[in-house]
Input
Amino acid sequence: MSFEFMWAALSPENFLLALGGVVAGTVIGALPGLTATMAIAVLVPFTFSMPTAAALILMGAIYTGAIYGGAYSAILLNTPGTPSAIATTFEGYPMAKRGDGDLAITVACLASVIGGMVGALFLLGLAPPLAEVALEFGPTEYFWLAMFGLTLIASLSEGNTLKGLIGACFGLLIACIGVAEISSDVRFTFGSNVMIGGIETVSALIGLYCVPVLIDLVATPDRHLKVTHETRGFRLGEATSILSRRWVNAVRSSVIGTIVGILPGAGGSIASLVAYSEARRTAPAGNKFGDGDPDGIIASEGANNATVGGGLIPTLVLGIPGTPTDAVILGALLVQGVRTGPNLFTEGGGSIVYTFMAGLFIATALMLPAGLLIGRYAYKSIITIPKALLVPSVAFMCVIGTYAIRNSTSDIAIMVVLGVIGWILNRFGFTPSPIVLGLILSRIAENGFVQGWIIGEATGNPLTGFFARPISFVLILVILLSLFYPMLKPRLVRRLARQEGRS
Amino acid sequence: MRRAARMVMTAAAAAMVAGVGFSTGAVAAYPDQPITYYIPFGPGGESDVTARFQQPFFKQKFGQDFIITYKPGGGGAVGWSQLNKMKGDGYTIMGTNIPHIIIQPEQSQIGYQTDDLVNVYFFHFTPDAIVVKDDSQFKTLKDLVDYAKANPGKVTFGGSGKGSANHLAQIMFDEAAGIKSTYVAFGGTGPSVTALLGGQTMAQWGYTTVPKQFERTRLLAVAMDQRHPGFPDVPTFKELGYEMSGGTYRGIAVPKSASEETRKKLADMIEAINKDPAFIKKMLDGGFAMLDVKYGKSMDDFMAKMKTIYIKAAKEAALVK
Output
């Protein structure tokens, strides 16, 4: 294989497209409600007149940037800018609260670059064999994957599992509103057209996470984020040393992100949640998980940026989009007349796709300087803007972002109502994360269960499909481990302590 | 400003029509600004892709852009239930799909009726087809039918949605062939192909577009009157003795308040794109099949025929009351 494609990707135009794409993507991702999918969909008509490779590089760069940009609002406003950044709020916002927002953003940037690189490496080197993973996951596997996701509630709501479970059930229920995806039943709409479209995940995210923060900002006289020090630059040194100590976590999370990214039914939000819970489970004693541990940010951001490369694997090899954003990229390829398939990866047919992958590497690398600079600017603005300006502008963005997702005014009403509900629930100790987890996983679990059951009934015994397939079996084991680990953990810790006391 | 200018021009033109009874130039200025083209689904599906195909041709022929905007939700119902509340000035159009717009209002109170929608043109369809994995045990349609007869209920067909074109095709074919198969609904064509390639389902009710987009798939038969030019070796159901011809039909509708003039002009423009050989080639290469049903009597006849066919099939399958 020659490296000509590397030079093609480095041509001045392509380089500028990658840079512009990353910057634009980061800003779009940072604004709640504006997603990579939307940005790329708007861009598609402009790519008609571009060479295919250049168009792909631009789209890839925006995609990468947007997934990273979601971390800003997650860290600074407790609102995931994109669904992929949900897990970033868990540790990122507490860090920002105590005055370490700048450090959190730099850690997120470094982790995103690592994740993006790992994902792109897998795409470059192992795409055709890895695409098979997408096919091994059938309905029953997705059902168990969703069940595994639900067990994360145990670790997310440590100390108050009951409230976590109640929150998750609420999420599972509101996900049922609207026209069911596979059975086409109209559920819980109470005859109203407002509810036919159901609850859109992003508007729910904005409502449940952002609105309570805004209400609290207005209700309390405190500053939004504590500022303990003069701005100390990027705090790059500190961030680098955290990452070099926690490199195992960074790599593990990136690999998790790549694999989950390959699964067409999952996506960045699930990838980052799984990586987060793994990081939390394996964290050394004395960790600060729950109160702002940078490890959580590394896990979440490493994983979600790895889904970019991971999701492109089934997209380019099989024509099956790994994520919704990939679906738009695939549509653009179709219009351009590019036929996806394994022959894209063989020499001869491969020049476009390799130029694209090289462009993806370049874009990921450019994310480091671009991300740090934009991040610093974002942090400075958030801490210096007076509250009287901050609250209305964030509220404005929330409304615009919610509308933009589906061009729907009903979604704005739903967002506001959920926001008020979220704020009230917060007062009683219910956190938004289990609700959102329930909302996202409900559809995956329902579809997987119904499809798995119908197929099982047609071919014999439905239960064999659920329990006797190798991946299902492994997932069940992981679920059991994840469920009982929080109960075993105190005992293990005690035993360790005793052993240490003896020696 | 522009809008005001247009109103003046339209008024002037209308006065001219009234006075002279001469209709050319009546809406000469239309379109003089971009047209918002709503897709009532998310991006990446067949509705989106074909709108994207039209986009450059419209720009080239009429000098204006199509701004493609997504309004997904409720399997299209969210968009369709809002269409007639939008402005009927000819600058708002929306994609429509058959059988969706026929089946949905029959199934439940979904915010619109089939006859509320003003379709100005149906420009293509994706013919139903049985898709299998390239190394499937079913080499021909006969293999599949024989297997299904020997093993009632065991053949699993994946497809996109319940009460959809795929589902109705499965119901109609089961009846035509005297077999009993199992239909498994997925959230779209993509997920149902994934299940097919992964071996979770044995076959798929899909479209002729599937092998053009996805690897490792082949067709057993297509529901067209003649073979698809992109698949000269794949027989039609009719050749094999089954009366099956149809698929998902995609058109463009305008809000009810749009004038007769606008409706006709828009239909003319879509027709001009549909007659362009370069556009036809793009569509056929993608596995789509062309269709020309234009606003007016032919549209009314077409809708009446489609309603009869699909409501009958849906009633037989107890999908609607």
Notes: Confidence is low (pLDDT under 50) at residues 11-27 of chain B. The CA atoms of residues 198 and 308 of chain B lie 37 Å apart. The domain at 127-222 of chain B is CATH 3.40.190.10 (D-Maltodextrin-Binding Protein; domain 2).
